[in-house]
From TrEMBL, chains A, B:
Residues 10-70 form the HTH tetR-type domain. Residues 33-52 bind DNA. PROSITE patterns: HTH_TETR_2. This is TetR/AcrR family transcriptional regulator. Keywords: DNA-binding, Repressor, Transcription, Transcription regulation. Pfam families: TetR_C_6, TetR_N. SUPFAM superfamilies: Homeodomain-like, Tetracyclin repressor-like, C-terminal domain. The keyword DNA-binding applies. The lineage of its organism: Bacteria, Bacillati, Actinomycetota, Actinomycetes, Micrococcales. Coiled coil: none annotated.
Length: 197, 197
DNA sequence: GTCTATACGGAGATAGAC
DNA sequence: GTCTATCTCCGTATAGAC
């Protein structure tokens, strides 16, 4: 396989994903027609179906792409230098989202779709599992430096706290996407006040 | 207006809403056709359009109905007897959801739709405002009994904590709706560990 | 690989009888 | 108010040329 061709192929797929992401964010996944993605991408229907079997597969690819970068960021941060605190981990989690996605709309749509679509549900399950792992690691590392806060050991402390950190991250994304008057700083300040330091 | 007729009308509207709720929970709002609601309700298309102008209005009515149930539960609890603690408030908020999966799924779908549909967005804004008010009240009441935890007064303490309690509630609903292996008890235990007591 | 053009099915909404 | 029947549009996905 010639690498030029392969690189071009991936570039084209990326072009399609990017156009789809913009379209989904603007109109929502269901309301977005292939014609919309055609317009947004400057390509044709044929070109799109040449790369993705159907609309659902395209959405899954977009979602997968967006989500996969969270893992890397957190893993990187928790393995270099001083372990980040739970609050800092939350900031990493939400900050990355904010950078990648203009807003979290598409993620909220993904969550919604995955309540009724088994294929998307599988994508979400897998990524959540992975985030849990990375997040758990990061928390464990931090609790290891603070034995005073982990009487039953860093493992137990991390396991206990995990759902809260995940939940606060998800809720941040949702509220930012949903509420006209959402105040990120107030939200994070509230989180900082309750998370262990 | 004869009241029998009015009561019958409301009963019929309720029958339609209930059928729509079941359908939406099973297939998702967008994937649910009017034909599905017809089947589920045992009525006809004509009957449904006699009560709701279009599919969107029906969804708004279903969502409004689901949301108002939450509001009532919290308001009732916070006005009777000892002020519930933040953790107890969270349990109240999520308790209704834990009983029935349908409500949770439809709520997640509502959040998703409201990222792209102005009419639904307005519904969400309004109800969130109301929940904020009720929740804020409840938190203020509790902090008033615990001045040791509210150095700047119960108002400030309640304001600070509010986003976290709301967020944890929303995230509970979402995780319950979409994670196969969601553990409500572990989630609430984690919340209890971080919330002030 | 990509384009243009289109087949095909399905969904929302209405008309008109009862 | 409700039913049956149907109209009309729109969206997905494909066929075939280049």
């Amino acid at each position: 396989m010639p690498r030029i061709t392969e690189a071009r192929r991936e570039a084209r797929r990326d072009q399609i994903r990017a156009a789809a992401l913009r379209s989904f964010a603007a109109k929502g996944y269901q309301r977005t027609s292939i014609a919309d993605v055609v317009t947004e991408s400057g390509l044709s229907a044929g070109a799109i179906y040449g790369h993705y079997a159907d609309k659902g597969e395209l959405f899954a690819a977009v979602a997968q792409h967006v989500l996969s970068r969270r893992d890397d960021e957190i893993a990187a941060a928790s393995h270099e230098g001083v372990p980040p605190s739970p609050y800092e981990i939350l900031v990493l989690l939400t900050g990355g989202m904010a950078r990648d996605l203009a807003d979290g709309r598409v993620l909220v749509q993904l969550w919604s779709e995955s309540t009724v679509d088994p294929a998307l549900r599988a994508v979400v399950q897998r990524v959540v599992g992975s985030v849990r792992g990375v997040l758990g690691d990061a928390l464990r590392n931090w609790f290891a430096t603070r034995p005073d806060l982990a009487p039953d050991g860093p493992d137990a402390a991390a396991q206990l706290l995990l759902p809260v950190v995940m939940g606060l991250g998800q809720a941040f994304i949702m509220q930012r996407a949903l509420l006209e008057d959402f105040d990120p700083d107030a939200y994070l300040a509230a989180a900082e006040a309750v998370l262990p330091r």
